[in-house]
TrEMBL record:
Residues 1-20, 329-352 are annotated as: Disordered. One of its GO terms (molecular function) is carnosine N-methyltransferase activity. Keywords: Methyltransferase, S-adenosyl-L-methionine, Transferase. Pfam families: CARME. It comes from the Eukaryota. GO terms for biological process: methylation. InterPro entries: CARME (IPR012901), SAM-dependent_MTases_sf (IPR029063). This is carnosine N-methyltransferase. Gene3D superfamilies: Vaccinia Virus protein VP39. Belongs to the carnosine N-methyltransferase family. Its EC number is 2.1.1.22.
Amino acid sequence: MPQPAPFASTEESAWGGIEETTQDPEEARVIFGALDSFAQYAKVAHFNVTHLRRRSFYALPQSQWQLLAAAPFNYLSTLDKTDDAIDSNALLARAIVDAGLKSFGMDEIPTAWKGVAKHTEIDKARSTVRQFYRDWTRDGEIERMACFGPVLAAMEAEQKQSEEQLKVLVPGAGLGRLVFELCRHGYHAEGNEISYHQLLASQYILNECPRAGEHTIYPWVHTFSNHRSRSNHLRSYPVPDVHPATALSSQDPAAPQGTMAMCAADFLCGYSDEEHDGAYDVVASVFFLDTAPNLLRYLEVIRHCLRPGGILINVGPLLWHFENNAPGNHGTDDDGDGEHDWNNSSGIADPGSFELTEDEIMVLLDKTGFDVEWKTENVETPYIQDQESMLQTLYRSSAWVARKR
């Protein structure tokens, strides 16, 4: 797999990890599909969010749309402001594209790859832009600390038992904020991510974004439902709330100095090799375990990565991502004979899946060589939640630490 690329604060920092994969046609399609989806963000958002609404608005009887177009409703003005908000979001999306192309030594998406993004990929681009609210705004700190707090507390307790700074792996690292925070706390942190939407976005924000507050995002602009006020609907947030390179370079030199790296790979394929056997003191899993079609494989690879006595810190719900959508030809291998060559693993795409309850996972941890040392239930963990919305969704997650026997 590509080697983890170290974080660097210089202008010429190279975020490796995806450059090597462009020689593979399918990998190239996925990467350029992700880039193209960010490039198409503005066009698709303008069409879906404002163009269709204008068309529906003018389909009203003239007396009605004239009423709504005038004060105090100013509906057409609202649509104009919505377009401006989408354009502001698009500046971030375009910056992600430019940073990704730069890592390939390109200025533009090759013509053959323009317009290739699927609807699902464009949806991911939109959700990634929204995710910056959670990971890289000041207001998102409430959500972050609900999840990061238990991780940092467990890390601190574990560090007291070690003379060396802990090495921690963060699978499903997303936009890289937890990796950054662990580094800022003096740990040697490595993030792993399979989604190129997340990888491209984290590459930009960690290595290329020039300053704090460089962008302004409008995370609630894509839907017109459940807003108490238009000011809330069109609320903006500066991104990022902190500039990673500046924050790390301004730390007390006498304090423990952490390191940070990111690796693009399927967790199951990339970390099951001999190189990663016992390589980490800690695996920090935040909203990650329920992305597994086969949790046994996740736990096996996590245990493989941990040194003897190492710990798995987990925070998150159980929203099983592959429920009713098992990988591998609906739960079988490609030729349908039920026999899969596990010596040639496709990682997360291997056939087979199952979903467990929380109490069953506790039993499974014991069966796979872990001892659960502590567990907290009903940890309130909102996820990209507009606190002013009339619709509030909330995970009551669990947080626990399990030690490798």
